[in-house]
Amino acid sequence: MNKRYKEQIEEFIYRGQKTPFGIGTIVVCFLCLLFLIVATFTQINVTHIWPVYDNAGNLVFENVTHPYVAQIPVVIFIAALLGPGYALVVMLMYLITGFFIWPVFALGGGLAYIKSGLFGFILGYIFAVIPTGKILEKKYNLKSIILASLIGVICIHLCGMLYCVILALLKVVSFSYVSSAIHSLGGIKTLYDIIASFIFLIIAIPVKMVLWIAMKGPASRKTQKTKAA
User: Fold this and answer.
1) Which of 110, 128, 141, 202 could join 152 in a cystine, given CB atoms 3.0 to 4.6 angstroms apart?
2) Is the pTM above the cut of 0.70?
3) pLDDT tens string 5-39
4) C-beta of residue 220 within 8 angstroms of C-beta of residue 22
């Protein structure tokens, strides 16, 4: 009797398994979508010491404040939480919601948003969650967390910048817009994204251990037993 209960408890302990299909996983996917939407419209001010040039042209260290939106780290977090497959589903849900249901993108929504330079970064979410999720599925340690943070963030930024250049070549936007977009979304904010993604990935495992109870619900266990049979 004790052995049976022990086996049942073991089923709900996360030990690096792939995310199972079930009602619990679907619910977690919708929660991740909500988290991504909230992150899109949540801005924080980051203040820290940074080297700047004063009026005399001398390099000095001053406190600087930058507005920051942690949307990219949340995307990386979702990839770690759900794995590449279900994280991709969440990103597609985000696209569908922004195109046809509600303007959940940073500057609105609708199909016309394709002409926005920021849309390239949203496309980058789709391309980033697959390698990021696969890296973390193989092994979840400090090395893989650093690698996943770097690859995920760089993939999104490269996709966003490349999309801006393509729009400029097609004369949808001007090259001055591309320059300002790269300046405002790149540089120090890329560093913020990498650091924040690293922190989010550290948090992802304990969060997944808690949500694993829901994702390993009765429906998931039944599906696995059917496949095994």
Assistant:
1) 128
2) yes
3) 454 455 556 767 888 888 999 999 999 999 999 99
4) yes
